[in-house]
Amino acid sequence: MSTPLPPRLTRDIGVAERTLRAILNHHITAAGLTFTEWVDLTLLTSEGPQTDDELVATQVAGQVGPADEIREGLDRLLVNGLVARDDAGQLTVTTAGHDVFGPLREQVGAVSARVNGGLPADDVEAALRILDEVIARAAKIVAELEAA
Fold it and tell me: How high is the pLDDT of residue 22?
């Protein structure tokens, strides 16, 4: 028989996520972006050109937000010239987008270093294994709820 996890686990995961999100929101709001726009720029910068549908699907699967909110963010990025769409429908970050995203990414990276710096590597690896399992189990429950 397995020992039940302490109720603090899910609470603490939530507190950590909300606290880190508050820090991120402070920086992205100061840059004039929304959370979904930040994620769009992050995905396009790290993974390269994608279609609207690909970006939306990735974010919906990752519980970033609802599809309509993500599409509205993409539209704002396009209107503001931070992202461009080529003739094949692929979205890319423009020079203006890199000018906004680059410094912002550096700020967020500095915060991440402050938060994560000095944590023992073995503990981080163990925490990541636990979080991967929690995410997989929660995603299964979400799928079951959506199927019902």
Answer: 95
